[in-house]
Amino acid sequence: MTELRHRGHQENDFQGDNKQESESEAKTDGEPPSDNEIKPDTVADVQPGANDTPEVLNKALSGLSSRWKNWWIRGILTLAMICFFFIIIYLGPMVLMMIVLCVQIKCFQEIITIGYSVYHSYHLPWFRTLSWYFLLCVNYFFYGETVTDYFFTLVQREEPLRILSKYHRFISFALYLTGFCMFVLSLVKKHYRLQFYMFGWTHVTLLIVVTQSHLIIHNLFEGMIWFIVPISCVICNDIMAYMFGFFFGRTPLIKLSPKKTWEGFIGGFFATVVFGLLLSYVMAGYRYFVCPVEFNNDSNSFTVDCEPSELFQLHDYGLPSVVQSAIGWKTIRMYPFQIHSVALSAFASLIGPFGGFFASGFKRAFKIKDFANTIPGHGGIMDRFDCQYIMATFVNVYIASFIRGPNPSKVMQQLLALRLDQQLQIFNTLKSHLIEKGLLSEEVA
Hints:
- This protein has 445 residues and is mainly alpha-helical.
- 67% of the residues lie in helices and 6% in strands.
């Protein structure tokens, strides 16, 4: 990280509060507040990082202008990342989940590092350790919930897992409470305000990064198509918006991102919708992509084999008369999921970019060019996943609202946790209901 220097600028509304707080500390402690105490709106200028482009690319593109050189660098690295994406899809859902976890950890590290740098918090007692400890606690809570929901039979089979599952939330709370007490014990005079800034910084980072990555894994369990199509739509929109903006962009879109244009925004929208329809049509025909990811207790491995639901079976849809007269077709054969893909691709094109705008505003607030320099021409991992996180939340809400009904596995889990007399009462109620509906005869019952 490059050298940081203070801006020396304060807004009037903070001056009075800071002065009053400083006087209060001086009276209470008998000492003036430390110079290291950073005021809320005083941030450091962070200079852009050095050129991290591989030397082989610099030599190969040395004759081009900076504009075209950046275009080729971004293009080559984008193709490399797409190839890597195809490889991890081929390796299966377990590898995908591990990659999501690795991306989450890297994004957390990038944002926390910015906090350390901007607020000069390198020497705060315990704070780096506490930040990673809280990450561990939150991951334990979320992944424990996931294991209990999707690996219920495995959890019930192993005694240690059953105990951990039963008291999972209490253990999670105890772990977090331990970190909270450690933070309180780490508070030192002259650094109070800075320590609370960083405490809040850590928790907001956890909210943005860990919660969203947890939702991505939940989407994956619904079927790999719910993981791949949304992510691919965001990638497609990012690429096509850049392409349309590069060649046709003239009208600025938003001040937070001066290089974004209306031409790129609109062109990316139409390209992404078409891409989503085509990708959905190809993937909906394969069970590997459409079946929910389940754990097979016999083989102790993940399986993605099932009878595809109605969502992934071809249907004939009538076309409006205007369209019929234009193209001569009365019906069109497509998967119902393709209709949902229009909603996903539209969100990726219209709302998804606001995740990028939010990240741009964040970087401008702290005067940094990128979150890191992990990927030449692209910045850090967080620079590539700023739109993916808001997309993951939308997909999870969309599935819960329009696709998924009650989870039978979770219902069974709750039933088995009841007393035997309560289970028997529910059994008799369910038996009466099925007989009344004609699905079960009284003789069989």
